[in-house]
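User: My collaborator sent over this chain with a note saying "see what the structure looks like." That's all I know about it. Can you take a look?
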Amino acid sequence: MTLAAVIRTLGGPLTVEEIELNPVGPGQVRVRLAAAGVCHSDLSLADGTLRQPLPAVLGHEGAGVVVEVGAGVTDVAPGDHVVLNWSPPCRACWFCEAGEPYLCAHADDARAVPFATDGGGEPVYAGLGTGAFAAETVVGAHACIPVPADIPLAEAALLGCAVLTGVGAVTNAAKVRPGQTVVVIGLGGVGLAAVQGARIAGASAIIAVDPAPAKERLALSLGATHFLAPHAGLPKQIRALTGGRGADHAIECVGRGETIRAAWSATRRGGTATVVGLGSAQDPVTFNALEVAFFARTVIGCMYGSTDPAVDVPVLLEHYRAGRLDLAALVTDEADLAGVGEAFSRMRSGQGARTLIRF
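Assistant: Without extra context I'll predict from the sequence alone. Here is the result:
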């Protein structure tokens, strides 16, 4: 038995209870969690914006220690430190073979298969196939990214989603070049990671946008050159800071029609708006027929930072060791499993960056 935060109904509470994990099968790994970050995608799963079978253990940004491996597992062994990969590529589908493992056709297969049972014998599912809001979880071996034992697991956990997604959006999807200007809209864990990614990429101006004034100091400390609050005149204000043209790149980390539209409008002619935030299917974004061709802008979607975690996690660790990437600064709150609900409330109100669940 292991303790987990279980959600049973959409929008309902998370209750800490004991679950019985399934036995470790061939190709699987049991991991004892050290820490897990609370991501906005967990909130989207909880409220039904993203689909997830229930009851479920949410949490997909985690790190821990391997305690058991199944038959055929050779890449990790008991005692290894790992970061969980909630979107593990199969390496065999069309997308994987085309060099787009972040779009793997089978990456979310595990979310549809129960990974545990509750005290009454009812099947329990793992959120995004990961189930990191639990003291232990069972995942496929391909969902484990080894990390050196000297890397603090509490900080390594953030690599599993926020940092891979935010930095990857800048370096892999937008492909920001030295000297270019970047706007980052939304300063949660992903947005603040994107700010750091823009600094690492050598951006000449990094304009951070968020409605919470309390985030200004943190954004500036991580590399932002300016901090603005969102308002109707935001694109004009950004043009004033970028030679009258608009930014070369806008990284949208909110997932709302209005902020996606603001990101588009804040870029220069020929600029690129990269949409990272996962929004609602009922929230449209509108462009008129003239502006699309006239401004020659590009809007692109970005799933999981367009990363291959097996390749990109080691790169991020190099930045971390060199002091270019600050993981600890992204953690603005810490809690135990019982605090996941409060972390959701903080996200709804736009407070803080990442809440870290420690086990």
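A starting point for your reply to your collaborator: The first strand starts at residue 2 and ends at 7.
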